[in-house]
Amino acid sequence: MRVVIDQDIPFIRGVLEPYAEVRYERGVDISAEMLEGVDALIVRTRTRCNEALLGGSSVRFIATATIGTDHIDMDYCSKHGIKVYNARGCNARGVLQWVAAALRHVVMADGKSPEEYTLGVVGVGSVGSLVSEYASSWGFKVLECDPPRKEREGGDFRSIEELAERCDILTFHTPLDSSTYHLLDDTLLAKLRPEATILNASRGGVVDNSLLANSSHRYIFDVWENEPLLDARVLANSALATPHVAGYSLQGKANATAMVISAVAQYFELPIVDWYPSEVEPTKIRKIGWKQMCDSIEEYYPISEESAYLKSHAEEFEKIRNSYSYRNEYF
Question: Pairing state of beta strands 2-6 and 40-43?
Answer without folding.
Answer: parallel
